[in-house]
Design a protein that fits this description.
With 147 residues, this protein is mainly alpha-helical. The protein is built from 4 helices and 2 strands. Helices cover 42% and strands 4% of the residues. Strands 1-2 form a two-stranded antiparallel sheet. Strand 1 and strand 2 form a beta hairpin. It is globular, with a radius of gyration of 17 Å.
């Protein structure tokens, strides 16, 4: 097993790709209803970024002896127009892989943040809004691009 600390830019890119789909700008923790982050504010962005970085450090530290995590105080948002949904989805996958070495990763707030961002980026994919919500019959499925 191996893991590495993802770059600050990697985390900033992931968080910056959250577009507040359907007017939502806040991510809520499922187990603790008192936890929420408005990712469109500098404070919410910074708090979520440090949660992601801390979990990444926890993961790598579980494999390697590392110095203690020190949160960053300045995170830079990337304009949404400079993020691509497919790249954000891949970056979320990388983050999961690098941060899942703790036994509780899939129950952490960091994982919930990544899942919320993954969902908003699925909605940003080209053609998503035109796809059928429910598929009732084979004739309604587009075969463009089918193998």
């Amino acid at each position: 097993m191996s893991a590495f600390i993802v770059s600050d830019f990697h985390i900033a890119y992931i968080l910056s790709s959250f577009d507040g789909h359907n007017g939502r700008s806040t991510i809520y923790g499922s187990d603790n209803k008192n936890v929420s982050f408005n990712l469109l504010t500098p404070e919410g962005f910074e708090e979520a970024a440090n949660i992601l970085l801390a979990q990444n450090y926890r993961s790598v530290s579980s494999l390697l002896k590392m110095s203690r995590f020190v949160p960053l105080t300045k995170w830079n948002r990337i304009p949404l127009s400079k993020t691509e949904p497919i790249q954000a989805l891949k970056a979320c996958g990388c983050y999961d892989y690098q941060s899942c070495e703790t036994q509780d990763y899939w129950q952490t707030l960091a994982c919930e943040i990544i899942q919320a961002i993954r969902l908003t980026n699925i909605h940003r994919l080209a053609g998503y809004d035109k796809a059928e919500w429910e598929i009732k019959e084979p004739s309604r499925i587009s075969t463009q691009g089918a193998v």
